[in-house]
Automatic annotation (TrEMBL):
Entry annotated with the keyword Transmembrane: no
Protein's recorded name: Gamma-glutamylputrescine oxidase
Domain of life: Bacteria
Cellular component GO terms held in the UniProt record: cytoplasm
GO molecular function, one term: oxidoreductase activity
Pfam annotation, one family: DAO
Domain FAD dependent oxidoreductase intervals: 39-390
The entry's keywords: Oxidoreductase
Length: 434
């Protein structure tokens, strides 16, 4: 992430509901200083990096995790909290991997959701896990897209759990006139992402990995014995796993870094509404997301607030009245919240690929990376961690499956990538008007 975007990300987290209501450890992990050795050096203490660390420790490898800030500072600690099966653009996987490959990838994504549940139970992570997820359509033309996706998931990708919600039934699930139909997934759901990330970080420490905060990586020296340099220290290792997504800046080779671009997403949290009022908005407190390109997503928190988010810009240059802009989208869905006070408004960056498929791969035989989760990171980061750890241990089958997905670069280089992406987003915004 560029210095400017890094500063913007720091600004956007200051009014985070998660940060304001979640207890962090009393002291940060130490800064890396001096020379250290480990089997595996992981860059990034978010979901994917911590997952790599846990999986590698389970295989008996020594692990050092480096973060430029602290665990959960990036997307892992500020996202919408949706825990989802599948991928942002499932048809891309089938086009590139074939039906059998897409089915295998989908099975891994289902394993990713199960892995989240397993880790919450194993490590006793209190993160407000709630099951149930609704994908909804706001336009007639989107109903057909939704039905086709559900049929493909059931018939071709091996996922029979989805349930169709027709026009008459959707109003009973969501107290809004905006939605025309939906698909309910009982296995997906939502959680408090910062609580989950901090729980993973503590589990990683307990399992014997060493975590270092405020230790930005400035260089990875590739070779048979890679060397990872920070601003104040050095790690000599056998394997490197780069898991910083949109925050890595120049750490990854330019050709790999150009495969993702940061899209800003913003969330507001209302005041506590009371249990009865909150329950009346969304039946069963399922998470909800529409299937538009510029989508809205929302859920009810454990303390009875509505958390409502949407994607805005790639640069993070928020609208002049960001809170009011997202609030307006919320009250378009729920007019009954017109008098509800917004207590928190925050944002961050989603790392997206051009085809919205995840990008997991190897730069060298001992240098791995995971990026481009495109809004599906809560579950897929666990998959990425396991896939990379398996590759480190010598089993590259799953990594090779994802490596078959072709990824084009965003045009324009670092300086022009944002403006080029803005133009593409404007095109899709205009298309959605018709």
């Amino acid at each position: 992430m560029s210095t400017a975007l890094n500063r913007r990300a720091d600004e956007l987290i200051r009014d985070s509901y998660y940060e304001a209501t979640t207890a962090r450890p009393s002291a940060d992990d130490p800064r890396l200083e001096g020379t250290h050795n480990a089997d595996v050096c992981v860059i990034g203490a978010g979901f994917s990096g911590l997952s790599v660390a846990l999986e590698c420790r389970a295989r008996g490898l020594s692990v050092i995790v480096l973060d430029a800030h602290r665990p959960g500072w990036g997307a892992s600690g500020r996202n919408g909290g949706q825990m989802l099966v599948g991928f942002a653009k499932d048809e891309v996987l089938e086009q590139q991997l074939g039906t059998d490959g897409a089915r295998a990838a989908w099975a891994l994504s289902v394993d990713g959701v199960a892995l989240v549940r397993e880790r919450i139970e194993r490590y006793g992570i209190d993160c407000d896990l709630t099951h149930g997820y609704l994908t909804v359509a706001t336009k007639e033309k989107r109903i057909a897209d939704l039905r086709a996706w559900m049929d493909a998931a059931s018939r071709r990708w091996g996922y029979p759990h989805l349930q169709w919600v027709d026009r008459d039934s959707i109003r009973k699930r969501i107290a809004s006139d905006r939605y025309l139909a939906g698909v309910f997934d009982p296995l997906s759901g939502h959680l408090n992402p910062l609580k989950y990330c901090l729980g993973l970080a503590q589990a990683t420490r307990n399992e014997g990995a060493r975590l270092f905060a405020h230790s930005p990586v400035i260089e990875v020296v590739r070779g048979a014995q890679p060397v990872v340099r920070t601003t104040a220290g050095t790690v000599h290792c056998r394997f490197v796993a780069a898991c910083g997504n949109a925050t890595l800046g120049d750490v990854l080779p330019a050709a790999i870094a150009a495969r993702i671009a940061p899209i800003a997403s913003y969330i507001v949290a209302t005041e506590p509404l009371g249990e009865a009022h909150a329950d009346a908005l969304i039946a069963g407190r399922a998470a909800v997301c529409d299937n538009n390109f510029f989508l809205d997503y929302f859920r009810v928190s454990a303390d009875h607030r509505v958390l409502f988010g949407g994607r805005a810009t790639s640069t993070g240059a928020a609208p002049a009245r960001l809170t009011e802009a997202i609030r307006t989208r919320m009250t378009d869905v729920f007019p009954q919240l017109a008098d509800a006070r917004v207590e928190y408004a925050w944002g961050g960056f989603v790392d997206v690929t051009r085809n919205r498929a995840p990008d997991f791969g190897a730069i060298d035989r001992n240098y791995f990376y995971a990026q481009g989760f495109s809004g599906h990171g809560v579950a897929l980061t666990g998959v990425a961690g396991r896939v990379i750890a398996q590759a480190i241990a010598g089993d590259r089958a799953a990594l090779d499956l994802f490596a078959r997905i072709g990824h084009a670069r965003f045009p324009g280089g670092p300086a022009l990538r944002g403006p080029a992406l803005e133009l593409g987003m404007l095109y899709h915004r205009v298309r959605e008007l018709f």
